[in-house]
Amino acid sequence: MTATTAPRERARAFLTTRQDAVLGLSHDLHATPELAYEEHRSARRIAGLAEAAGFATELGAYGLPTAVNATAGSGDLVIAICAEYDALPGIGHACGHNVNGAASMAAALALAPLADELGITVKLLGTPAEESGGGKVDMIRAGAFDDVAAAMMVHAAPADAVGMTSLAISSLKVSYTGVPAHAAAMPHRGVNAADAMMIAQVAISAHRQQMLPEAVVSGIVTSAGDAANVIPAHAGAEYDCRARTAEELAELQARVRACFDAGALATGAELALETVGNDYADLRQDLAISDAYRDAAQALGRTVPPTDPNLRGGSTDMGNVSHLVPTIHPAIGYDCGDTIMHHPDFTRYGTTAAADRAVLDGGLAMAWTAITIATDPTHRAQLLTRLAERPTTPAR
């Protein structure tokens, strides 16, 4: 392997020398799942591998103890590779974030030795709390993406896909406070918090017919009293609102909040609404970079359907990144039987030979995509122009 060998083949060779470390990372993340903002061990593993590979590395970056910033190269085209590693309560990596994080590490390791030659800076960002909270949104506010010209990651899935979008989402914690009373002797002295919750739920259900297309409101009641013979003084719930765009989400949020207000108004209970974590924007993938990724993945022997911006996934804080930076978030598929993400059965497929191949293919496909956008003069110039024209202080 010499300096004249094609960059793609050199990237493949660099990754091959680190293959065991990358797959070890995937298996280790899978074996020790950690929840949002608590991924201390996972973040240390990411940071440690990056530092050992010569990256300038910061653990606890951007004011988040479990965020990582690791850079290699000094080119003006800064390419961010986002590594996720948080898990789900009770079911571990049922969304495959061990695959996501390890694939991003693979891409960064494959690119780093080529960074200066390509005129790029490889910026590996360890991004906590995708499943709940939205660590990428916190990092946007802290300036993590201010110098980034393009951002990418892959996400574990049952099949490969490129260009799809996702729903914007916000999460609410709801509580009503009433007045307890004996349910038989003095019910008129009570204020029924459970009734307030019931009225709100009925109002939300009545509104579904008028919701915008593809809007979704889902929730659970977490408490509604402790004894049948006592008027409930407290009731709680957790609700998610989803919509096609951030703008439609704001409209839906206002209507849902009005439904909860209705419960308080009808019963006299006191309402408290708390936004949980950050709102996630809809995902807007860059179609040109998506096509470059698709070409790279197919060159690796993967079957990737044509780019489809109408294909919709769940919700991700990578959507917020995509509103600021040209972004891709393709799915990297592997055999998981007949199950899907966020199902307990999906977890057990996360360290199979097929999942390991997804880690390496996803990482190399991203590296090759970065090489494409760095070496194509038109694409490179467009990305740098968009970066230069971005407002100095982006909306956060």
Key descriptive features of the protein:
single chain; 396 residues; 6-stranded mixed beta sheet; 4-stranded antiparallel beta sheet; 12 helices; 12 strands
Which descriptor suits the 3D outline? elongated
- Strand content range: 15-25%
Mean pLDDT figure: 95
Helical stretch tally: 12
Terminal residue distance: 45 Å
Characterize the quaternary organization of these chains. Answer: single chain
Mind telling me the C-alpha Rg?
23 Å
- Count of distinct strands: 12
* Helix-strand category: alpha/beta
Q: Share of helix among residues?
A: 40-55%
Q: Describe the strand arrangement of the main beta sheet, using strand numbers.
A: 1-2-4-3-5-11
Low-confidence stretches: none
Q: What does the largest sheet look like?
A: 6 strands, mixed
Order of helices and strands: HHEEEHHEHEEEHEEHEHHEEHHH
Write a structural description.
It is a single chain. With 396 residues, the protein is an alpha/beta fold. 40% of the residues lie in helices and 18% in strands. The strands form 3 sheets. A 6-stranded mixed β-sheet has the order 1-2-4-3-5-11. The chain has a 4-stranded antiparallel β-sheet with strand order 8-9-7-10. The longest helix has 25 residues, at 7-31. The protein is elongated and about 85 Å long.
Brief write-up:
It is built from 12 helices and 12 strands. The chain is an alpha/beta fold. It is elongated.
What is the strand and helix layout of this fold?
Elements: H1 7-31, H2 40-52, E1 56-59, E2 68-72, E3 77-83, H3 97-111, H4 115-118, E4 120-126, H5 135-141, E5 150-152, E6 155-157, E7 168-177, H6 193-207, E8 216-223, E9 234-243, H7 246-267, E10 270-280, H8 287-299, H9 318-322, E11 327-328, E12 331-333, H10 344-347, H11 353-375, H12 377-389
Parallel strand pairs: 3-4, 3-5, 5-11, 6-12
Antiparallel strand pairs: 1-2, 2-4, 7-9, 7-10, 8-9
Helix pairs in contact: 1-2, 1-3, 1-11, 3-11, 6-7, 8-11
